[in-house]
Each structure stands twice: as structure tokens, then as C-alpha cells.
Amino acid sequence: MAVIDVDLAGRAYKVQVGGGLLANMAQEAAPFLESYGSRRPVPIVADANARRHWGGTVEDALSSAGHRTDWYDVPAGEASKSWARLEDLTDWLLALGITRSDHVFALGGGVVGDLVGFACAILKRGCGFVQLPTTLLAQVDSSVGGKTAINTATGKNLVGAFHQPSLVLADTDTLATLPERELRSGYAEVLKYGVLGNIEFFDWLSENRAAVLSLEQDALIHAVAHSVAAKARIVAADERETQDLRALLNLGHTFGHALEAQTGFSDRLLHGESVALGMVLAARYSARRGDLSLEDAERVDEQVALAGLPASLAALDLDCDGSALVDHMRHDKKMEGSTLPFILLRDIGDAYLARDVALDDVAAFLDEQLRSH
Ligand code: GLY
Questions:
Q1: Which of 2, 200, 245, 280 falls between 20 and 30 A from 229, CA-CA?
Q2: Which atom of ligand 1 has the smallest separation from the CA of 246?
Q3: Domain-wise residue ranges, the chain
Q4: Do the first three CATH levels of 2-177 and 180-371 match, i.e. the same topology?
Q5: How far apart are CA 285 and CA 367, in angstroms?
Q6: What's the pTM value of the predicted model, to 2 decimals?
Q7: pLDDT 10s per residue in the chain (373 long)?
Q8: Which residues line ligand 1 (CB under 6 A)?
Q9: 180-371: in CATH 1.20.1090.10
Q10: Which H/E stretch holds residue 8?
Q11: Which of 247, 16, 287, 213 is nearest to 132 (CA)?
Q12: Distance of CA 235 to the CA centre of its chain
């Protein structure tokens, strides 16, 4: 098992990465279960898939330690990050008599983690929560760092709060029950840490990609723990994304978000798949500006493609032009007046925030990419 500290003054917490963590959660999370004793039920909010595969393990772990449980089921999918679901969940937590010193447990992927985190940020002006992420994407990204949110009619994650969990238990056993496409989608976020900040990790992934994707324990734990440690360092230095550092974690997300919006946030392109293709586009655009060598842009392409992730915009067969994609970007919450900061690359492992990107030029670049096979 690996343990990573997220070093935030007064709100430091641990992320544990390894097998068997849910089966042992009564011990691992003991300080956060204490307030319930054996009389008050421990609230666990779970998505249907996570509960089906791992609900029994969590239930057994808690009941054998003398705890009772109460479960709240969240329908799987982004639609659950809504005002209506937030209202229903907070009403349920209030009816349970949750106090500010209690902890709510979130079992599932990013949707459950973001929803529960936001509910806990506002419930009685803030109660505790523990993340039990069961997808690769949630383990390496959304469960760590305290960004919580719901979606609104205007867009994704537009209403939310920074609210750090008290503990994250990333049980790598849960990845065995994840559909392969989702595992690969999560791998895009793992690869992102190499591309944005660490060429050695990028090279390690190039060698060990197959071992990670076939869930070989040592390789998998190394990949998840390394990703979490990279994120923890960035979050500790720039928790609220005010110093151009945390923003680097958005590598691939600006292009990716436009692609997700164009495909209706549907199964046609999963979030990680859009980030993978977004990274390819960020690398190619960096090469077009002369910041990155063509050879390095091709290495990013190659690693994305070898992981079974989309690496060609033309292959998506979108019925739109570059300006339609740029129009989606104009709604990005990171817009600064009429410009949008882009995360670009000087090298593999050396991302930077570019504030001089003209959106018209991005549209022309995307037109080229939409055509090039
Ligand atoms: N997912 C990007 C961040 O947490 O900042």
C-alpha cells in the first residue's frame, strides 16, 4: 500500500492506495466513524454500479466492527450532479441528523464524489466526508484536491465549492469491476501527469502501460500512487488555482471539453477519452506554434493510441467545423475577457499556461485537424 499526504495547513489528509482497503475500511477510517458509535448509522452515498460490486464488502467491514449503515443510492451518470439530486441528498442527510463533526462516505466515481463533496461543503456550513473512489479516473483525479460541484443548465461544474475530504481510500481492487473502456478512459488522466510534469513517469508508462491496464498490482499501485502524489503536490501549492499551477491539471481539458460539448456529453466520448484527444491536440498545437518538437507531439499521439484512446480528431467524424468547437470553448469558466488560457507544452513533462492564444487561430488549427487523416 502507498500513503500520500495532501499537505494543506490545518486540513491535511491522507490518500491511501492499495488492495483490500474497502474490506479494511473500519480500521482505515476509524477516526471518521467514531462519532457514529454503534447506535447512529454511518451514511454511505453510492452509485448503483459501485454498490452492486462493493456495497457488500463495505457493509461487512462496517457491521463486523459494530457499526450500522444507511445507504443513499445515486443513479449512475452525470445527470445526478443536479440541483434536484443535491436537494434530495441534503434533505436525507439532515433527516439522519448529521452534525458538523460527522463524516459522510462517498462510494463510486467522480459523479458521487463531486455531489457528496458539495453536499458536505454546504450542509450546516460544512461537515466532513471520506472519498471511496471506485474508478481509475476518480482515484487519480477527482477524489483528491477538494473540487466539488454540480452541473447546471449553463454547463458542467459551474456551481460548487473547494471542500477537502478527510481521507481518501483508493482501493485498487475496485478497478477489476470497471468496464475496460472506463479503465482506459481513467488511464488518460494517469498519462496526463507524465505529459504535463514528469518525463520519467511518461517513459515509465510507455514501458508499463500493458501491466497497468491489465491491473498487475505493483504496476497499478505505482501508477495510481504516482499520479496522486503529483496531484497532491500541485494542490498543496495552489489549492484554489490562483497561481497558474493547479491550472496545469487542465491539460487536454479545454480542447476536450469542446469535444464533449459537441458530442452532447454522451457515451460517444467519455471524459477521459476527450482528455486524451485533447492532450493530443494540445501537443500538436504546441508543435504548430513551434514550442514543442514534432517528434514529441508524435510521442504523445502514440502513447494515447497505444492505450486504445482516441488520437485523431478526423476519426471522430464530427459534423462541425473548427469555429463550432471554439464556440464551445467560449463558454469555458476559465475565459478571461475575450481570451482563454490554454495549457500547452514546451517539452513532454513541461506544460505551461499560454495566455496569448488567439481563438481564431485555434479554429483554423482545428479545421486542419478535422480534415487530416
Ligand atoms: N481536475 C483538475 C483539478 O482538480 O484541479
A1: 280
A2: 5
A3: 2-177, 180-371
A4: no
A5: 12
A6: 0.96
A7: 999 999 999 999 999 999 999 999 999 999 999 999 999 999 999 999 999 999 999 999 999 999 999 999 999 999 999 999 999 999 999 999 999 999 999 999 999 999 999 999 999 999 999 999 999 999 999 999 999 999 998 888 999 999 999 999 999 999 999 999 999 999 999 999 999 999 999 999 999 999 999 999 999 999 999 999 999 999 999 999 999 999 999 999 999 999 999 998 889 999 999 999 999 999 999 999 999 999 999 999 999 999 999 999 999 999 999 999 999 999 888 888 888 999 999 999 999 999 999 999 999 999 999 998 6
A8: 141, 145, 147, 246, 249
A9: yes
A10: none
A11: 16
A12: 13
Q: Are strands 103-108 and 42-47 parallel, antiparallel or unpaired?
A: parallel
Residue 246 appears among annotated catalytic residues:
yes
CA distance 96 to 78: 25
The CA 41 to ligand 1 mean position distance, Å, reads: 32
Residue 163 known to be catalytic: no
Active-site residue, from 81, 147, 222, 284: 147
Could you confirm whether 103 is annotated as catalytic? no
Query: Measured between alpha carbons, how far is 332 from 252 in angstroms, rounded to an integer?
Result: 13
Other beta carbons less than 10 A from residue 169's beta carbon: 25
Q: With b meaning 16 or more CB within 10 Å and e meaning fewer, what string describes 133-164?
A: bbbbbbbbbbbbbbbbbbbeeeebbeebeebb
Q: Beta 69-74 vs 13-18: how paired, if at all?
A: unpaired
CATH number of 2-177: 3.40.50.1970
In whole angstroms, give the CA distance from residue 140 to residue 105: 18
Residue 4 CA, ligand 1 centroid: distance in Å: 17
Pairwise CA distance, residues 105 & 125, whole Å: 18
Q: What is the largest CA-CA distance in the chain?
A: 64
Q: Provide the 3-class DSSP secondary structure of residue 351.
A: strand
